[in-house]
Specification:
With about 210 residues, this protein is of the alpha/beta class. The chain has helices at about 15-30, 45-50, 55-65, 85-90, 115-130, 155-200; strands spanning about 5-10, 35-40, 70-75, 100-110, 135, 140. α5 (about 115-130) links the parallel β4 (about 100-110) and β5. It binds flavin mononucleotide. Flavin mononucleotide binds near residues 12, 15, 76, 79 and 80.
Length: about 210
């Protein structure tokens, strides 16, 4: 099953970074891609803080990440980095938990001064988790992202998010083709073989 998982790292119920995620989710859905959402703030805080991966909340969330081909992460910038909530979740992922997945990071911040927080803070952690394919990501300042679901996003941000979604969907469609390839190829090889043997039967042998 091919799907993307979206991870919201904000502790706030009305969240700007989650708003970016909602936009990306609806664009992915429009591109025909299944999306499964992990809202870290909804997971058991006790399980997260104790890194109790036997807790149902974490087991389920970790299984969602493990099975995804693409992982979209959104976080607020907190103290010049990403949120502690997101770090608590990333800390319970297996060491190679993002290997072989396309990862797209997004952040919102109060000030453009921390525009590079994705690059210097979050991306090294994603790499440490085995991610080899990380999109450039999008950083938006608060003024560009209204919290209200029905208010429109800043046009430049919407365009950059849309470009990320295009990259994500292209990757996922290619992965799906590759995933199905052995089965298709086996069928193709079988029919090519039987076509060859049908021809071979009609063809005179060298010995004859
Ligand atoms: C505890 C805390 C720390 C913050 N630190 C920063 C910061 O260092 N740099 C910055 O640009 N914004 C900072 N902000 C502002 C948030 O990043 C910004 O409002 C963001 O859009 C909030 O995202 P959210 O609504 O998804 O939680 C901070 C906000 C809080 C509550």
């Amino acid at each position: 099953m091919t799907y993307a998982v979206t991870i919201s790292g904000s502790p706030s119920a009305a969240s700007r970074s989650a708003r970016l995620l909602r936009f990306v989710e609806s664009e992915l859905a429009e591109a025909g891609i299944e999306v499964r959402r992990i809202d870290i703030r909804a997971l058991s805080p006790a399980a997260l803080l104790a890194a109790d991966t036997s807790h149902d909340d974490l087991r389920y969330a970790l299984a969602q990440v493990a099975g995804a081909q693409a992982v979209v992460v959104a976080t607020p910038v907190y103290k010049a980095a990403y949120s502690g909530l997101l770090k608590a979740f990333l800390d319970v992922l297996p060491q190679d938990g993002l290997a072989d997945k396309l990862v797209a990071p997004f952040a919102t911040g109060g000030s453009p001064a921390h525009l590079l927080a994705l690059d210097y803070a979050l991306k090294p952690v994603l790499s440490a988790l085995g991610a080899q394919h990380i999109l450039r990501g999008v950083f938006a300042v608060d003024q560009q992202v209204p919290k209200e679901e029905d208010a429109t996003l800043d046009a430049a941000i919407a365009e950059r998010l849309g470009a990320s979604v295009d990259q994500l969907s292209q990757w996922l469609h290619e992965r799906e083709v590759i995933r199905q390839w052995p089965a298709n190829a086996a069928g193709d090889i079988r029919s090519a073989r039987s076509a060859r043997s049908a021809q071979g039967a009609a063809r005179p042998t060298l010995a004859a």
